[in-house]
Structure to design on (93 residues):
C-alpha cells in the first residue's frame, strides 16, 4: 500500500515538473506583465525548486513533517491538527 502511495506521489511530482510551464502565454494581469518584464532571465521554475531543496531549513521541515511522532500516521495528524488549532487560537489575542 505504501509503495502505491509513494508511486502515485512520485508520478504526480514528475507530471508537475513536466506539465507546468515557466509562465503562461499571456499574463493574467497588468501587474504580472510588469513582473515578467522586471524579472531576471535566469529565474525559472526548476531553478527555484532546486534552490528550495538546497535550503537546509526547508529540508529539515519536510523531514520533520513526514516523520510520524512514534504512534503512527493518525497520531501525527492529530498532533499537527492540535498545533494548527493552538496557533490559530493564540493569534486571536
Amino acid at each position: 500500500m505504501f509503495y502505491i502511495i509513494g508511486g502515485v506521489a512520485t508520478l504526480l511530482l514528475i507530471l508537475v515538473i513536466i506539465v507546468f510551464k515557466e509562465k503562461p502565454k499571456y499574463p493574467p494581469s497588468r501587474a504580472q506583465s510588469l513582473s515578467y518584464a522586471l524579472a531576471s532571465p535566469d529565474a525559472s521554475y526548476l531553478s527555484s525548486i532546486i534552490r528550495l531543496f538546497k535550503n537546509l531549513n526547508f529540508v529539515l521541515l519536510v523531514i520533520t513533517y513526514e516523520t510520524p511522532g512514534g504512534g503512527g500516521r493518525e497520531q501525527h495528524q492529530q498532533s499537527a491538527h492540535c498545533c494548527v488549532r493552538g496557533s490559530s487560537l493564540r493569534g486571536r489575542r
Residues 2 and 89 are 35 Å apart (CA to CA).
